[in-house]
Amino acid sequence: MAKSKSRKSASADSVYRITEVVGTSAVSWEEAVKSAVATASTSLRDLRIADVVKLDVKIDGGKVIAYRARVALSFKYEA
Question: Would you give the DSSP letter of residue 13?
Answer without folding.
Answer: G
